Amino acid sequence: MLGAVENRSVSPVFVGRAGELTALTEALSRATAGEPQALLVAGEAGVGKTRLVEEFRDAACATGAVVALGGCVELGADGLPFAPFSAALRTLRRRLPEELSAAADGHEGELARLLPELGDPGSTDAGDEDATARLFELTVRLLERLAADRTLVLVLEDLHWADTSTRHLLTYLLRTLRRGRIVVVATYRADDIHRRHPLRPLLAELDRMRTIRRIELSRFTRTEVHRQLTGILAAEPAPGLVEEIFDRSDGNAFFVEELVASRTCGDGATPLSDSLRDLLLVRVEALPEDAQRVARIVAEGGSTVEHGLLAAVSRLAEDDLIEALRAAVGANLLLAVPDGDGYRFRHSLVREAVSDDLLPGERSRLNRRYAEALEADPGLVRPDERATRLATYWYHAHDPAKALPAVLDASVATRKRHAYAEQLRLLERAMELWDEAPAEVRAGLRPMDYAESYPPCGCDPETTPLRQLDLLAEAAVAARLCGERERALKIGKMALRLLEDDEHDPLRAAWFWTEKAKLQSNLGRGDGWAEIARAQELVKGLPPSAVHATVLAGAAGWGMLRDPGPDSLAAAERAVEYARLVKAEATELSARLTLGTIMVAAGERESGLAEMHAVRERTTALGQFHEAARAHINLVSALESLGRSAEAVELSDAGLALTRARGLAESDGWIRGNKAESLYSLGRWDESRAEAERLLASATSTKPRGSAHLRLAQIAVARGETATAARHLDQARAVYGTRDPIPQYTLPLAGIDAAAAAAEGRLADVRARLAAAAEGGFPPGTHRYGWPLVLVAVTAEADSRGLPAAEEGRAEALATVRRCVRALAAPAPVWAAHATQVSQELARAEGRETSDRWAETVDAWTPLDQPYPLARARHRLADALLTEGGRREEATTLLRQAHTTALALGARPLREDVELLAARARIPLAADPAAAPEPEPQADAFGLTPREQDVLRLVAAGRTNRLIAEELFISPKTASVHVSNILAKLGVSGRGEAAAMAHRLHLLDTPR
After folding, report:
1. 3-state helix, strand, coil in the chain (%, to 5)
2. Which CA distances in Å does 572 have to 522, 592, 646, 683?
3. CA angle, residues 126, 130, 135, in degrees to nearest 5
4. Are 450 and 470 in contact (CB under 8 A)?
């Protein structure tokens, strides 16, 4: 390695950027106070991003902060997975060895996928869709722990070269980082971000995060160029030189340095070229021949080239190599890597210019020499980089025989690191090389070495050659796991065409059809049943196999969500049986969990729950945490379906502890959504809303996000926030789509949508939602969604009884209610309470209600720990008692209880209903009557004057302003003014809603 070499073209004075540096140091101060910070530094190539970061680094170190820097690596056209994070973690391990070991304790295997020095990452489950999210979550937790007792600055440079996995990890970090004394600074070239650049979507997403600040670096002004030249020359520059340099550089700091350096290269007579590329090559061409040769070799080797690898490729004597390097470093072209044993170009623009200047044959030859050197001595590079770099070198050497095995080896290495996007890119490269590679090379490849995505189908993996079909299977799974579902679907279709045209392999075909079914559903292209049916047909009559069990488990899972009837139960039982026969325990446990879920839906409550608990315990013991989390998801949902909401919340907390500990981000979202539902049932609405909002901020898939929107809409409706409810309902509809109507999404959406419509007096919409649900039917287990929808609909009918506009279609609507009641089961006390309340609302809608029947409803709800429906039932009972007369004291107690609950929940519509009934009955809601003065008899509780009450009565009867004017002997204009005042006082937006409220709240009744 070289010692310090004088650099003559860089200004020792930091020029300009005062505002930008202040923004960075202020962020450092806020982070030191415990508020994590994130900043993006953007600017064109050469504008000074690195110099700004270096100044900030020095300032941060002066305050005692720990700075870890990692740069994205450009290796030819490729990027190394997680390269900047690996480099930064390596720095932290060197600076804080004990602290990092403590922070990583218990998770060294997973974190070794980013930092191999931590240990063996072990094997990975090819179907574990949470693997990447788990790695990301553990990485964030590691950084948070390290930043708990010290300020940590994480600098990620050159995001424009970032691989997909790095971009995903950075997004996750910035979205989920909530605590710790940490500053994240990322830089990128703004001029490289064209319309289709892969970084562009990330930048758009980060722009939507208000917690992230972007710093844009502009070019230097003439004054700043003058200061830069003064620093470089260590003297006052001539005015003409300042003008010339400023005009030619256009204020780009790096170009200023190159222009100054080019004037002093050689004998000083080298003419300046107007071509940027030629400008950047001026100093290279002024170097001795060996130094130029070394520069060309380094340019083709990647962002950084190790000294030993450079020596092997250059084939120079050690002394000659050192002299060549000293010349290149002395000319400020190359830099020795501070924390390693290698060299890199001081600026990537120069490296790109040198690489572009290579002849095609020269580039291939250099890549071959890199590959041969690395094969001869694998220890020349870090183990985590070896496979990817060797694959890249052989690929660019244009040697398919060598490139294909190397690319496949690299794909396995990236899969083990959960870098599925990079695995997909490598597999696609392997498919590109497949036909070019010699047949004998392909014959020597084995599936056991490179393919593990789908189960073995009876062949001997040690003697059966790897097939293109195997690569397609690996690529399809990698695409699905990295979120490229469209690409996965396209690859699957290619495989199925290959199976139809050239190969007859029903088991492989069945596997691909099952994969396609998942993708069709995830992409909203359909429910996937046609694909599952095709897979079942293919395996019919074949001996039991792992694929057979997988297909049956897929069919059972499909039925569990869409039609949990006898056929789905039988499919789940067969899946369990086949999985046991072939000793595929993972598939067996998954099928048993599905079986238990269907059993609960079918009414076998305790046996179904016992099966699900057994699966939860077994998967946890085996370390199958993804399936253990799924067991928590399904158990929490099953308990809620039985009205055991408190148990559901307790189990969801245990599930969330598991998902946090294991980094199961997607499973975390499902459990959190189920927990929010149970919290709502328990009347813990603020906690429910907080969980739903947390879910919206962290959800990694669409369905849990839809669940969060539904819960927020439900709370908003119950609190009278109809505009908020409408917004969340629209977002839920957009998330769920229309091509795959799953009852557990469509029925709750219909119920909450109907409740929002009822709150706004849109009775026709309420009827339409119920009619559509009745037409679709209520599969087993969906009573939990059907009863609330029916209750909303029949309550709306009862509230609108006597409203002229509601009469048309009323008989049909009530008939639909009765039809739904007959179709819905009530297998638990909570649904029996719903059934009782529906019956009483039906009686109210037909004028047959009695206080005794409402007392039954109150008794049904009282032991269930669901305060909101109990309060509504108490309000109805009090109303019935006051109507019948004689039990005023009991009505008073009921109204006070309902009012207390409404206040605690923030349920404004219920509170207003109770307060108005109490006001009209002259019942004080406060325990001390003196504390609640009675309202004035001449005014309504909403402040309606007698004249406005007359107008409202006619509005409720369906009169127009002209007819109201004629009947009350006023002008139409006056009638219009009265109607406007009424709408404002009632807080409604239309005449229909006002009429509905008048009937619902008895605004036109004679005071009792």
Report:
1. 70, 5, 30
2. 22, 7, 29, 36
3. 100
4. yes
Place of tokens 């609108």: 800
In the predicted structure, residue 397 carries a pLDDT above the cut 50: yes
Strands 152-157 and 182-189: parallel
Q: What is the pLDDT of residue 551?
A: 92
Which residue carries 């971000």 as its tokens? 193
d(CA 622, CA 519): 28
What is d(CA 606, CA 639) in angstroms, rounded to the nearest whole number?
A: 10
Does residue 216 contact residue 23 with C-beta atoms inside 8 Å?
no
Q: How far apart are CA 718 and CA 866, in angstroms?
A: 14
Residue 134 scores a pLDDT above 60: yes
Q: What are the structure tokens assigned to 886, written together? A: 């004689």
Rounded Cα gap, residues 839 and 833, in angstroms: 10
Cα 758 to chain centroid, rounded: 33
Confidence of residue 953 (pLDDT cuts 50, 70, 90): confident
User: Residue 130 above 70 pLDDT?
Assistant: no
Distances (CA, A) of 595 to 141, 569, 885: 35, 6, 54
Position 124 confidence tier, pLDDT thresholds 50, 70, 90: low
Contact 588, 611 (CB under 8 A): no
For residue 695, name the pLDDT band (cuts at 50, 70, 90).
very high
Do β-strands 78-79 and 74-75 pair in parallel, antiparallel, or remain unpaired? antiparallel
Separation CA 335–CA 944 (nearest Å): 82
The pLDDT value given to residue 932? 46
The alpha carbons of the chain give a radius of gyration, in whole angstroms, of 35
Q: Residue 272: its pLDDT value, please?
A: 40
Residue 152 parent element (H or E): strand 152-157
SS (H, E, C) 756-773: HHHHCCCHHHHHHHHHHH
pLDDT in tens, 311-339: 999 999 999 999 999 999 888 788 888 76
- What pLDDT, in 10s, does the model give residues 536-581? 999 988 888 888 888 999 999 998 988 888 888 998 999 999 999 9
CB 765 within 8 A of CB 757: yes
Least confident of 63-77, 160-174, 426-440: 63-77
User: What angle, 0 to 180 degrees and rounded to 10, lies between the N-to-C axes of helices 972-986 and 991-1000?
Assistant: 60
Sequence-separated (6 or more) residues with CB below 8 Å from residue 50: 157, 187
- Residue partners of 14: CB distance under 8 A and separation at least 6: 51, 55
Residues in contact with 266: Cβ distance below 8 Å, sequence separation at least 6, in sequence order: 286
Q: Give, in order, the Cα–Cα distances in Å from 414 to each of 120, 420, 469.
A: 14, 7, 20
